[in-house]
Amino acid sequence: MAQSLQQSQQRHLDELIQWLKIPSVSSDTSKIGDVKAAGDWIANKLADSGLKVETIQTQGHPMIYAESPAIDGAPVVLVYGHYDVQPPEPLNLWTTPAFEPTVRNGNLYARGATDDKGQVLTHVHSICDWMATGKPLPLQIKLLIEGEEEVGSENLERMMPELADKLACDCVVISDSSQYGPGQPAITYGLRGIATYELLVQGPKQDLHSGSFGGAVMNPAIALCHLMSSMVDREGRIAIDGFYDSVRDLSPAEREAWDQLPKTDDFAKSVGASELFGEKGYSADERRWARPTFDINGLTSGHQGEGVKTVLPAQASAKFSFRLVPDQDPTQLTDAINSHLTKHLPTGVTFKLTPDHGAPGMLADTNSRFMDAARAAITAAFETPPVLIREGGSIPIVTRFQETLRCDCLLLGWGLSDDNAHSPDEKFCIEDFYRGIQASTMLWESIGKLSS
Amino acid sequence: MAQSLQQSQQRHLDELIQWLKIPSVSSDTSKIGDVKAAGDWIANKLADSGLKVETIQTQGHPMIYAESPAIDGAPVVLVYGHYDVQPPEPLNLWTTPAFEPTVRNGNLYARGATDDKGQVLTHVHSICDWMATGKPLPLQIKLLIEGEEEVGSENLERMMPELADKLACDCVVISDSSQYGPGQPAITYGLRGIATYELLVQGPKQDLHSGSFGGAVMNPAIALCHLMSSMVDREGRIAIDGFYDSVRDLSPAEREAWDQLPKTDDFAKSVGASELFGEKGYSADERRWARPTFDINGLTSGHQGEGVKTVLPAQASAKFSFRLVPDQDPTQLTDAINSHLTKHLPTGVTFKLTPDHGAPGMLADTNSRFMDAARAAITAAFETPPVLIREGGSIPIVTRFQETLRCDCLLLGWGLSDDNAHSPDEKFCIEDFYRGIQASTMLWESIGKLSS
């Protein structure tokens, strides 16, 4: 029996809430069971709609694959998304608990609301609802929803060659990014790459009394600060030799187009920073979307508890990451960092650099027929034509899809830049969730009219 | 009934073990009851011997005061020590639990073994045992054993004027420092001062996605590293304007005397550091004992758990401390640090500096009659004459005793520099514990022969 729009929207939201309650934190080894449960949840949802579903085991968390029947002469689209989420910490900064989804002011708050359960579910809903009508889809749709995006998608990367036939498609569709602003949808044609590291600086064999030893034994926390400071100047310019050699410059046309984008709210104010910051000669959007950057993601050393402990710590460590732009190779970067650290290492300490994951950046063709189809679908669903933007985040697997599958790529973000994707109080605007489902439906209609 | 030496040594050790089992961590608000219990323990021990005992309440943890009868014409000595201890963290680095005292290889391992329960108890034992003989002490002894030395002795400092009459004495005796090396006792005639701080750097109002915002929003962890690096160079030279203006230089005679000290084991090797470090033009002892230094005691920011979280943290903080030398004023330092941080603050972040505690350094008169008495007592008990040294640590209250009570000061350390005073596996050599008790007894005999 057909549901009213309101009934189906309520059902769409209820199902998202169910899914968000599962704490599928892929980086937390104690959450393996929850990650599996979140994968099973979406696999069951897809199987219930009549799609052919397969759980692909990996050395880590499983991937869920589904496909609709092949349609002669019509394109094949691969929808990619992920069911794993970032860690919720710091827990005390959430207004309501991360895994108890809560509606406030038209937004749904939960870890994974926008990144990426809420966004990938727009496509799952549009496809399942289409299947429920009994009418065949006008194209073949494949879905790959993995459980390791937040830890670098290494298993999917490794298995890509063996999965290439299964995943073969004309275009990958991914909704894991943002609109340009509230009421201004966007198509993202570029992403930054990433390279993440952990640095451990080792001083004395154990913590020492800073009075008895301070000044005669190098303090590894001070050494760490010197090393971190040596890697980037106060304006965000990275000081590693050769770092900018392969950076692809922004084209004048791109810079002009971005300059024409509707102005959003004061950027520094929106994130609560005291003032703007960044590399000289670039706008905030240029810095975030098209310039490589360095960030410290975590610092740990010595006494972190209450009160004073005048210790000279044995160790200090930093987690840090680079965002890369097209033509920068994350594998070459590790050697450059090791050389830099060796050169700048203070006396009396040793270091160990552990690379975690890396991926190059990507740029999509802004003139493809799939891009035209997406523009039409979004304009209809959001009642506003999308703008073309890049994003500063990384979806490491996107470049690999392009390389391996030789396909086009559509990054259709339904989120907003203040959705707190990796922070407390992550949210997703419920109206955009519904619009995303509608745009997704229209996208299948538009792409169905193209030849394969 | 008189005990054999062996019996009384066993009793001395057993009582120390009892006391060490009480986790009297003064900086940990959850341990208030344990801190009180440790104070009660030593108060009862002193009262049982027949001394007049008083518990002095403060705004924080109580102080235990005791005194023997005044002796006409004989000096008055004040024994000062503390029953509070440093936090035991990191717990996983202890071979046996911090509050389960364990004997291994002639050492007693426990938090507080050397700092300061084991050391102050040498005096308590010598006094109580003397009292038990029924013979009067040849001098008046007062004892002040407080519960806030590890958090800066602020209440004792504040109450010093009102306590001045009660504490009036000719000489303060403190055992909370180290011998020069194994088998080489020392009298410490100088201590460094201290000033401790916490710095909080605030960036955006909450943690942000480093991809979406990195490069356009200042990272407070990077800002913190720049600020910390700006305060000290790679050789330990502090870069705060005017910092060295009031530093009292080492005298040539002192440098020569220290140069004559018996050489100990390779210093870097003994602490497990890869090589020596420190301010140019000074020896390791000079750097530790007589030069001001800067140490980071703790760093905290962003993601510290397992795995990767590519966050741009909202905050970063450092706990840091300076060791000061005579003539440096810790109260003036706070203004200088604030100016320095303001001048060097990167764009886009704010900071808050919170001073914790501070105390100036001290130098004692090496030619006093009390120094002579101590030399004789130690030479007899340790069968080796003591050398005269300074120490790098701080006993903030010592300068205040000197100023308020106008007394001499004896710092008689029975510990060793590798006792891990503020680290895991803190220990105290049991033989030195016994020698300390003997030296303490002999000290009362020697001082009893001086006129008041």
Automatic annotation (TrEMBL), chains A, B:
InterPro entries, sorted: Cyt/Met_Dipeptidase, Peptidase_M20, Peptidase_M20_dimer
GO molecular function, one term: peptidase activity
Xref: Pfam families: M20_dimer, Peptidase_M20
A GO biological process held by the record: proteolysis
Keyword Transport: no
Record domain Peptidase M20 dimerisation: where: 189-347
Record has Metal-binding as a keyword: yes
Enzyme Commission numbers on file: 3.5.1.18
UniProt keyword annotations, A-Z: Hydrolase, Metal-binding, Protease
Domain of life, per lineage: Bacteria
Entry-linked NCBIfam families: PRK07907.1 (NF005914), PRK08201.1 (NF006053), PRK09104.1 (NF006579)
Name used for this protein in its record: Succinyl-diaminopimelate desuccinylase
Species this chain originates from: Rubripirellula obstinata
Gene name per UniProt: dapE_1
